Amino acid sequence: MKIAITGATGFVAKNLRKFLSKQNIPVVAIGRKNFPTYKNEIKIVTKNYSEDLSSKLINCSCMIHLVGVGKQTFDNNFYEINYLLTKKILQISKKSKIKKIIFNSGLGASKNSTTDYFISKYLAEKEIIKSGLDYTIFRPSYIIGTSDHLSQNLKKQIHRGTIIIPGSGNFPLQPISINDVIKILFHAAASKKYSNKILDLVGTEIISYEKFVKLFTASKKPIIKKTNIEIAYRDAIRNPTSQYGVDDLHILVGNFIGSSKKLKQISNLEFENFRNILKSSSLS
Ligand SMILES: NC(=O)c1ccc[n+]([C@@H]2O[C@H](COP(=O)([O-])OP(=O)(O)OC[C@H]3O[C@@H](n4cnc5c(N)ncnc54)[C@H](OP(=O)(O)O)[C@@H]3O)[C@@H](O)[C@H]2O)c1
Q1: Fold adopted by 1-140
Q2: Domain locations in the chain?
Q3: Is the Cβ atom of 69 under 6 angstroms away from ligand 1?
Q4: Which of 16, 17, 30, 32 to mutate to test the pocket of ligand 1 (most atoms within 8 A of CB)?
């Protein structure tokens, strides 16, 4: 097995690459800026995935496509990165004779999606399904581990002394441990059981955002302040450095819930409780 990974410098990819290095699985790691590699890796640095990469991807059996944006800006928007770049990765995979693609979409992506983020992820899903490649599409909830995005955000707020909870804080989260996610990505690359499937990548427990924040901050005891949701949205729209971006709020308020049942059956994994991750990663 030889695995190609895009977005090599991102949170999920970094954890996955570390895991694969311990197994000594050959990896082609692709990123847009220079990065350190493990012994098992070949590195590709490409600014916009436009050059012909096929000679470097020779004999890869699977492409794990982990480039994605959860917050858009003028020059890094959802349509171009989440959708058009995925289309490009499909072309690159086909040219390189890679037979399988694994993609992280988002929990909430569907044909009924109304927000730019989920629409871009859903468009990418459709493109993958019609590509003819063997595929596994995961729809993750919040992936939790050292230096995940939500923890980083909360840590920043703790540092400032106050954590803001937008609105009621009564929004459901289904956190899943990064350790489970990387095992599942690896299984999906190796096993036919995941072929041509769309699977929710969610933990077994549903917890409200407010409760999650309280667990996360248990030992730090910062001030926790609820703000009116209208104020949170106004800040998100006008202030690029606000605690929550517009899409963070959409995802929180959207109440997206999945089921871990199918994935548990296929993976045979005993999922880690996210509370242990909070403890073991010294997050709480
Ligand atoms: N983490 C979660 O909780 C979560 C939840 C749902 C879905 N997902 C999806 O899972 C995938 C991996 O997530 P992650 O948490 O690892 O994301 P991440 O840490 O933000 O990493 C994203 C990767 O995409 C690359 N990237 C961003 N814009 C790019 C561009 N214009 N051209 C080329 N590369 C670009 C980044 O490169 P740089 O390092 O150079 O910036 C980085 O390597 C993403 O598709 C994400 O949407 C994640």
Answers
A1: Rossmann fold (3.40.50)
A2: 1-140
A3: yes
A4: 32
